[in-house]
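Figure 3 (text version): structure tokens given as input.
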């Protein structure tokens, strides 16, 4: 076939054996014409191959030093980091609650120097040799002063000694693996043994699926320990913060004698999109927020971060008053 001809004839044979004919129109004389500007050949030492990058000085955006300012995702106000820290990571303009690390939270919840950490050196192993799990554990251990997604210990709130566990979302999404479950169980058992109220602040994406069944077992283990704690007529206060989901919500986080939450925290079991797809129905705009769950009876109170300590002191006064009578020697 002559490629330079005006019409190119292509004959193909289909599966059923019938031959089909396709005509491609081709104008004569266009094949060998060079473009007006010929691009340079692609070689590694050719400066024109890569588009030159504009330097920072040519950018029109205002330069903001990194690590000094934070933009509020709710009201878009630029907040000075130091001021934000002093305000317990709560926006000064719209009261949006930013995520906060476990240690920072413990610092403002308990009395100064009253916290003793337990099981600080307990670390997760990789029982299933799940791809990339070991690397993620190393990465997240380096990024903060905690070795897993929860910090536990004994501290004092007001006049009350408490067993306190605080989860940290920055460590693998606050997921509950063997270490989180074990640390919380030991904390609850210490609370039972020492006749102390237990307070757990949750923030979690759920069970740590890198550990498979080992992570799911923690749901039953923590709840079992809480059942023994409750038998001693000791209170358990569960505090839900943004976000708390899945395996943690389906276990210890929702069995508190008192369930508190921070304002506008996202709380639920499955994600909203999954529920929407499954039920094929429109969900209310505030679905899976602490306000929605307060209205529907899952949560007992919404307490802003800055008032949490004083509220806990008040609730513990009430919850432990009966306990004090039991413990007091009879005259
Ligand atoms: Zn704001």
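Below: residues designed for each position.
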């Amino acid at each position: 076939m002559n490629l330079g001809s005006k019409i190119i004839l292509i004959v193909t044979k289909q599966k059923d054996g019938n031959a089909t004919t396709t005509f491609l129109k081709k104008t004569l004389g266009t094949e060998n014409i060079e473009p007006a500007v010929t691009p340079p050949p692609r070689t590694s030492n050719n400066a024109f191959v890569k588009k030159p990058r504009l330097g920072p000085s040519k950018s029109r955006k205002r330069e903001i030093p990194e690590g000094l300012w934070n933009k509020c995702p709710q009201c878009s106000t630029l907040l000075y980091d130091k001021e934000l820290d002093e305000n317990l990571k709560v926006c000064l303009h719209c009261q949006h609650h930013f995520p906060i690390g476990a240690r920072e939270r413990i610092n403002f919840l308990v009395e100064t120097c009253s916290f003793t950490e337990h099981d600080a050196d307990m670390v997760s192993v990789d029982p299933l040799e799940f791809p990339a799990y070991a690397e993620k554990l190393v990465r997240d251990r380096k990024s903060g002063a905690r070795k897993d997604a929860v910090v536990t210990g004994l501290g004092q709130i007001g006049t009350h000694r408490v067993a306190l566990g605080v989860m940290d979302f920055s460590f693998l999404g606050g997921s509950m693996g063997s270490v989180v479950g074990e640390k919380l169980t030991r904390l609850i058992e210490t609370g039972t043994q020492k006749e102390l109220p237990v307070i757990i602040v949750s923030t979690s994406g759920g069970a740590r699926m890198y550990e498979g069944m080992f992570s799911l077992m923690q749901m039953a283990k923590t709840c079992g320990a809480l059942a023994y704690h409750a038998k001693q007529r000791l209170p358990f206060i569960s505090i839900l913060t943004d976000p708390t989901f899945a395996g943690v919500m389906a276990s210890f986080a929702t069995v508190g004698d008192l369930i508190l939450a921070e304002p506008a925290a996202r709380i639920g079991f499955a994600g909203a999109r999954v529920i929407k797809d499954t039920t094929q129905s429109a969900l209310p705009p505030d679905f899976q927020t602490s306000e929605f769950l307060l209205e529907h009876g899952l949560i007992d109170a919404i307490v802003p971060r800055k008032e949490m300590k004083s509220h806990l002191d008040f609730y513990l006064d009430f919850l432990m008053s009966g306990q004090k009578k039991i413990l007091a020697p009879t005259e």
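Residues 308-327 form the longest helix (20 residues).
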